[in-house]
Each structure stands twice: as structure tokens, then as C-alpha cells.
Design brief:
single chain; mainly beta; 3-stranded antiparallel β-sheet; 1 helix; 9 strands; disordered N terminus
Length: about 170
């Protein structure tokens, strides 16, 4: 009988503090899709050489085509390219401004000048859908080909001199 009463006493005795407070825990995070790695995260350099000031506009002798490696951790759905740089005022939305007035670089997806690569955030800040130039869609490893061409605003003079233009490029799947 003694064993039973001691056991009942132990079972009925509370083993926690009745005055404990419940503390709220908030958890927050953003689930993101990482952008693809382009050109092993190395700078992409394009050198047009000497361009005669008398024959700038879309001079076929000075169009450059570049292919870069693309590695994506996430590669489902559709690929988008975002080109962020200064647009040449008075020109179409795929013309990067240079440091020379009235002179820019026209950017295109793929080989040739058929598919403009628009500058800016595009749809939902993810860029514009890639429709040309990506060697494989929904693949972790592929390559992206783009074309760059000198551009002169129609009827506007261009001064001779060294020129520079720069932009950031991202590829992401959404």
C-alpha cells in the first residue's frame, strides 16, 4: 500500500513551472531563384577595333558575336535575360549608350540582328524571355550567344574617339 501512495504522489506532482510564459517566435525568409552564372562570373569584353566614323550605323564589318557559358542551379520553366545599362537617348530600347554622343551599341539575342536584347527590368523585374541564342533550355549547363553592333542615331553626327559602354547581364529561369 505504501508503494502505491508514493507512486501516486510522484505522478500527481507537477514537474514544470506553472508561471512559464509562452514566447512567440517569428520566422521570415525569402525563397529565391538564383540567377545563372554567366561566363564563370568573369567580365565579358568586346573589342570592336577601329570603326570608320563615316560608316558606323550597323556596319556589318564591325558586328561582334560572343558565346558565353551559362551554368544554372535552377533551370525549370522559361529562361529570361536582363540587360541593365544606360539606354542611348532617342534610340530603340536595345541600344546601349556609350561615352560618345549619338553613338551606341545595339544588342541582340543569338547570332545576327534579328532578335533585339532589350535593356531594362522587363516583365516583373526578371528581364525579357530568351527566344534566341540559348543552346539548351531547361539545362544546368548551356551557352548563350549574343551579338553587338555599332549604332549611330539617324542623321546625327558622331565624334571620333575611344568609346566605352557597360552593362550587367543576368539570366534566370521563372
Amino acid at each position: 500500500m505504501k508503494k502505491l501512495s508514493v507512486l501516486m504522489f510522484i505522478i500527481s506532482f507537477p514537474i514544470f513551472n506553472l508561471n512559464a510564459l509562452d514566447i512567440k517566435v517569428n520566422v521570415k525568409a525569402d525563397v529565391v531563384i538564383p540567377p545563372c552564372k554567366i561566363n564563370n562570373e568573369q567580365v565579358i569584353n568586346l573589342d570592336f577595333g577601329d570603326i570608320p566614323v563615316t560608316n558606323i550605323h550597323m556596319n556589318l564589318n564591325h558586328i561582334l558575336t560572343k558565346t558565353v557559358d551559362v551554368t544554372c542551379e535552377y533551370y525549370q520553366q522559361r529562361p529570361y535575360v536582363k540587360l541593365i545599362g544606360e539606354q542611348l537617348g532617342g534610340a530603340d530600347t536595345h541600344i546601349l549608350a556609350t561615352n560618345i554622343e549619338n553613338f551606341g551599341i545595339a544588342m541582340f539575342q543569338g547570332v545576327g540582328t534579328g532578335t533585339p536584347m532589350q535593356i531594362g527590368d522587363g516583365t516583373g523585374s526578371i528581364g525579357y524571355e530568351i527566344t534566341d541564342g540559348l543552346s539548351a533550355i531547361n539545362s544546368g549547363n548551356s551557352s548563350f550567344t549574343f551579338t553587338a553592333a555599332p549604332y549611330q542615331l539617324s542623321g546625327m553626327p558622331v565624334m571620333a574617339g575611344d568609346f566605352r559602354a557597360s552593362a550587367m547581364i543576368d539570366i534566370i529561369y521563372m
